[in-house]
Amino acid sequence: MVIFLFSINLVYGQSIPNLTVDYGDRYNSLPKLVFNTATIEDYRKAISSNIIVNKTPTVEGKNLLIQTGKGELKFKKYSFSANQGDGFRGWEYKGYLPQLKTHILVSNHVSESLGFSDLVLIDSTNGSQHTIASIGDAAVEIPIPSPNGYFLAYYYNQVYTSNSCFIGVLAVRTGKAPLRIKLSEYNSFETDNWAVEDIRWVDNTTIIIKAYTLKKIDNENSKQFAYYTARLRQENNK
User: Fold this and answer.
1) Pairing of strands 220-231, 58-60
2) pTM, 2 dp
3) E strand intervals along 114-205
4) How far apart are CA 211 and CA 199, in angstroms?
5) Alpha helix stretches (DSSP H) within the chain
6) Across 66-80, 81-95, 196-210, which has the greatest mean pLDDT?
7) Nearest C-alpha neighbor of 226 from the set 52, 101, 79, 40
8) What is the number of alpha carbons within 13 Å of residue 4 lying toward its C-beta?
9) Does residue 183 register a pLDDT over 50?
10) What residues contact residue 209 under an 8 Å CB cut-off, 6+ apart?
């Protein structure tokens, strides 16, 4: 995936540093989150996840133009046309994370008539990229920063299996050039008992989940909600 994204940038004459965090061996070697039941009142008291700034990027022809402290970057705008066949389809702009000073984009491509996408954070200060690799076919949901900005929590609900999800937590550290920040895997969790509606932060090291299960009621799927909380776990305290 790193090679794929790097090659896309070269099409536009851009060689951009890219760091990919992955769903795989690294997460498997790290502590798992342990969830306990919570209440709707706990969830309502938690810090809202509404921290995304909606921006409209400049469009020039078939390209999205993203302004950074190191100059302007061009990304092929996503095309919804169904007559393209396999290959790269382009980028979608999802907003701006002011706490991390990053633009949020989704990269889309098609292989053997199946669509795949990954979420990418573009550093607005130097243009570097942080790819959060997809756990399935679609991109993960937009990550939510902790109040102090030291962690990012995100989730992915399984597309083909109801009531199943993955939750990941990334550590945000100060990086060395050419990366201003560096993301690294920290904690994770998987379940086939429920999916995620929303994530919020209780404090700098505790998240709360609004979860749901789909149940058939009068021949229609209905979401049944529940709430769970977990404290981040350090690597030396497995």
Assistant:
1) unpaired
2) 0.88
3) 114-123, 129-132, 144-145, 151-157, 165-174, 181-191, 195-203
4) 9
5) 2-11, 25-28, 40-45
6) 196-210
7) 40
8) 17
9) yes
10) 35, 167, 196, 198, 199, 227, 228, 229, 230
- Give the Cα separation of 147 and 14 in Å (integer): 33
Write out pLDDT tens, residues 189-213: 999 999 999 999 999 999 999 999 9
Asked if the peptide bond before residue 178 counts as cis, ω within 30 degrees of 0, the response is yes
In this structure, which amino acid lies at residue 22? Answer: D
**Cβ neighbour number for residue 48 with a 10 Å cutoff:** 10
Distances (CA, A) of 207 to 48, 81, 132, 154: 11, 39, 19, 11
Q: What dihedral angle (degrees, nearest 10) is formed by the CA atoms of 3, 16, 87, 139?
A: 90
The backbone torsions φ and ψ at residue 5, rounded to the nearest 5 degrees and listed phi first, read -65, -35
> How many residues appear in the chain?
238
Is 222's pLDDT higher than 50? yes
User: Is residue 212 within 8 Å of 15, Cβ to Cβ?
Assistant: no
> Token pair of 212, please?
């749901």
Residue keyed to tokens 């409209």:
56
Tokens representing residue 9 in the block = 């940038």
CB 77 within 8 A of CB 106: no
